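Researcher: Structure prediction, please.
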Amino acid sequence: MKILVDMNLSPRWVDFLAGNGIEAVHWSSIGPPDAPDTGIVAYAQSYGFTVLTNDLDFGFILAISHGNKPSVIQIRTAALGPGRIGGRVLGALKTLSADIEEGALITIDSRKIRVHLLPIV
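Model: Predicted structure follows.
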């Protein structure tokens, strides 16, 4: 599994994920900081990444495109750093790896994790 960390999340996520055996890259190291979300989705789809974000636009893009890739993981908490929510994200990555591989929109908040398999119709 490869994770593309969106601009709205700290680059610290890359080290956190890599330290837990997950390949990760922050968008700032591969693309322009003002890239449209559609461009990030297209890159993730082309190169086999799952997007990790706090941005609700990615779910909207998946819904209107009816695409089944890339998978998107949305963090919906006030605490966005890996030190606060990283354990929940790692747990979701491990337990939902088959769904992520097939294509899913996963939303993680402080109380629950929701999974919508792609395409969203």
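Model: The two ends are 25 Å apart (CA to CA).
Researcher: Thanks, that helps.
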